[in-house]
Amino acid sequence: MAQLFLVRPMTRALVISVFVIAASQLVGHEQGTDIVEAPNHERYSRSAYEAGRRDAQKDIRENHLVVEMFGGPLPPWNADWVKLLDERYHIEVREVSGDVVDYQVLGHARGYNEISKAEIQRRFGGDVVSRTLDEARNRWKQNHAD
């Protein structure tokens, strides 16, 4: 009987550990089915990605070009970049989050920008978003050189 008593707590602990691990994997699996990982290892919500694509397609049909951005702090030339994109190409830069983002924000912005940037490139050629950002950065640096 003493042996059973010594074995049982260990067995019980083992069973509980296996159950907890299995349950956490199941919960993680249920919660994680919407989370995918891109080749660059960025994880995002698949449903938010699809919603972002649909939102961009709707905006394009309405002739509204937008680039979603997140992260912070914003560089000092950001306002100039936003202004140049709007004045030259009628492209809006929409800040969708600050420096704290979740899988939904990442997914939506990723899906939205894939569609939106493809349309922007189709209309204007090349990567006008990046080129305009480089121009705004260079102008700012020239104006603030020591």
Could you explain the architecture of this structure?
With 146 residues, the protein is an alpha+beta fold. The protein folds into 2 domains: 1-33; 38-143, no CATH class. Helix content is 66%, strand content 13%. It contains 5 helices and 4 strands; from the N terminus they run αββαβαβαα. The protein has helices spanning 2-32, 46-61, 78-89, 103-124, 128-143; strands at residues 35-37, 43-45, 65-70, 91-97. A two-stranded antiparallel ribbon has the order 1-2. A two-stranded parallel sheet has the order 3-4. A hairpin with a 5-residue loop joins strand 1 and strand 2. Helix 2 (46-61) packs parallel to helix 4 and helix 3 packs across helix 5. The longest helix is centred in the N-terminal third of the chain and has 31 residues, at 2-32. Mean pLDDT is 82; it is low at 1-30.
Which descriptors would you attach to this protein?
disordered N terminus, 4 strands, 5 helices, two-stranded antiparallel ribbon, alpha+beta, 146 residues
Q: If strands are numbered along the chain, what order do they take across the biggest sheet? A: 1-2
Radius of gyration: 24 Å
Distance between the termini: 85 Å
Report strand %. 5-15%
Helicity, as a percent range? 55-70%
Instruction: Give the biggest beta sheet.
Output: 2 strands, antiparallel
Q: Tally the beta strands.
A: 4
Averaged pLDDT, please? 82
| Domain module tally | 2
